[in-house]
Specification:
Helix content: over 70%
InterPro entries: Luc7-rel
Strand content: under 5%
Shape: elongated
Coiled coil: 117-184
Pfam families: LUC7 (PF03194)
Largest sheet: 2 strands, antiparallel
Structural class: mainly alpha
Order of helices and strands: HHHHHHHEEHHH
Strand order of the largest sheet: 1-2
Bound molecules: zinc ion
Region (Disordered): 246-321
Low-confidence stretches: 19-26, 185-190, 281-321
Protein name: LUC7-like protein
Radius of gyration: 46 Å
Amino acid sequence: MSARDAMAAMLDELMGPKRNVELGKDTKVSFDDPNICTYYLVGFCPHDMFTNTKADLGACQLVHDDNLRRMYPESPEYGQLGFERRLLRFLVHLDEDNMRRIRKNKDKLSGMDDGGKRKLEDEKRQILRDISTMDEELKTLMAGAEQAGSEGDISKCQELVAKSELIEAEKHSLEERLEKLNESPTQTAPGIEEMSMKPMEVCEVCGSMLIINDAQQRIEEHLTGKMHTGFQKIRTMIQHLKDKIKEFGDAEEQRREERRKARAEESTDKDSKDRRHRSRSPHRSSRDERSRDSRRDRDRDYRRGNDRDHRRDHRHRDRRY
Ligand SMILES: [Zn+2]
Ligand SMILES: [Zn+2]
């Protein structure tokens, strides 16, 4: 990386990918900008977790923007962009890989692993069995040959000797094979031989091979190491994200329900307004009529100063309601 590229990467890291935008222009970076690492926005980027371990994922190619990460939970888009699901999918994938490794290491320990120690020991045992069977056959053949010789049966004697020579050759090649197998464990699978020296177990969190009753310092190194803490963090985050996604779903459901209710109310409101509008027309005209009437009445009352008329007018008006 040239010094210029290194500076650019550093500026990206510090100021976000829109650092080149001129001042005064729109400097708003959207959360779903393709250069932004959305894993980091939601919580953490798995690429950061296992550097220089067996589970190293390589460096993240996207920008880890602290400003955006601070803004994200406060923004109206929080939980609306599918970022949580995306991180959940990645973490579940990593967790499944980890589970597979745990199972594989357990199989290895119990000697079930193909090409492992058990297969090797089985083959050695089989060769030893074959050799001892051959030794028995050779004894019988030699005894037979001796007897045939003492009886003067030369051709039978020769036949039995030839047979025993064949078996002798076969036995020799088996012994060579056995010798090779006895050399091979330290050459082909040193781990297995080494492991069988001390009782081991597989860590249920990160799949590491652990020596049972190991030194306290080694135990602590493992428990605080990147692999162990990383896979523990992944499991915790998976649960957290599942809860969050359910929360977002519930909130969305509630918003939908509220919108539905609001729409329903609006339409009943509109209905009743329409109804009122229809029924109000005669009503309003009657009120207009009444006001004309009452004006006339008032004028009349005023002119007459008549109480009885005034009361009658009230009755008259009430009936109109
Ligand atoms: Zn990232
Ligand atoms: Zn562990």
